[in-house]
Amino acid sequence: MVLTDRQRTDLHAGVYEYLLSLDGDAFQAAAASLEQADPQACTQYKEKAEIQKSKTTTTTTTTMNSSSRATITLLEKKWTAIPRLQKKVLELERAASHNAKIHAHRVGPSSSS
Is 64 exposed, middle or buried (0-12, 13-18, 19+ CB in 10 A)? Predict the structure, then answer.
C-alpha cells in the first residue's frame, strides 16, 4: 500500500507524538531522529499541540493516577479503532450473508431466467 504525502506526514506526526509520550532516553532519541528525518511532520505535530494546549484550560484536573498517562495519543486511538472496525465489518458481512440466504429462499430456484 502506497501512502499519499499527507498520510505519510500524519503517520510520522503520530509516531513522533507517541514517542514523545513515552518515558525513557531511547524513546526521546528516537523522536529526535524522526524529527531530523521528517521535520515537516514533527513541526505539524508541534503546531497542533500548541493549538490544543491553548484551548485547554489550566483549571482542568485529571483523576487518573500518576502511573498512567492522562492523554491518549492519536496513534493509540487509531490502533485501537482497527479491531473495533474489523468486528463491525464482520458483523455486517454476516448480516448481508444471512439476508442473501433469506432472499434466495423467498425467490426460490424457479425464478432464475
Answer: exposed
Long-range contacts of 29-36 (CB under 8 A, 24+ apart): none
Distance, C-alpha 8 to centroid of its chain = 13
Tell me the HSE value of 76 on the side-chain side, using a 13 A CA sphere: 11
Q: What is the pTM of this model?
A: 0.56
Q: Is the pLDDT of residue 71 over 80?
A: no
Please, what is the Cα angle at 47 between 41 and 53, to 5 degrees? 135
Confirm if 19 and 31 have CB atoms less than 8 A apart. Answer: yes
Residue 31 grid cell: 523522536
